[in-house]
Amino acid sequence: MTSNNEIERRGMMFVLSSPSGAGKSTISRAMLERHDSLIMSVSATTRQPRPGEVEGTDYYFIDKAEFDRMVADGEMLEHAQVFDNFYGTPKAPVEAALSVGMDVMFDVDWQGTQQLGGNAKGDLVSVFILPPSMTELERRLTERAQDSAEVVKKRMAKAADEMSHYREYDYIVLNDDLEESIAKVQTILAAERLKRDRQIGLHAIIADMCD
């Protein structure tokens, strides 16, 4: 048993994916603020640090040779090239967190989710955040005034492709009302924490009860 009288458990890899503008980042921030045992995964990247970025907090900054070595040696849970830079999730810190009952949140697309599933299926829980409608998604993208009309158009086209992969996810949350959506994601997290296979201290407790 743990100090708060809960059964010892293994953590999970908790993926949130969505089209840009569907609310994934807002929901992720709320989840991290409300759950002490939930942390954000930290990616490795070959790009140079930007002002204010902290090694090990924002990214692990490595060169291309080290990145390639980690991929070749199976030390990345997922990886991708974005323009001229490479990004990936190192396996070791994630495994260290899972082994002490911490849950690790991932902000990756469907391709990253596929890679995670291929490398650590038993630890993966995936949630796809849907917008209420394409009209509402376009309104959100336009009103946040971060992108030009041309970029918004490209994001809308990409959104349709991303949403076509919804069947690959364990859970779907339609983000019409933000607080309701956060509550649904919290419910998923709570239920997955109670799964028998994750409660690694269960056998010893039951054995003690039945002794």
Short summary:
The protein is α/β, with parallel strands linked by helices and 211 residues long.
Report on the architecture of this protein:
There is one protein chain. With 211 residues, the chain is of the alpha/beta class. The chain has a domain at 13-41 and 101-209: P-loop containing nucleotide triphosphate hydrolases (Rossmann fold, 3-Layer(aba) Sandwich), CATH 3.40.50. It contains eight helices and nine strands. It has helices at 24-34, 64-72, 91-99, 110-120, 134-143, 149-163, 178-193, 202-209; strands at residues 13-17, 38-40, 43-45, 59-61, 76-82, 85-90, 103-107, 124-130, 171-174. It has a five-stranded parallel beta sheet, with helices on both faces. The two termini are 17 Å apart.
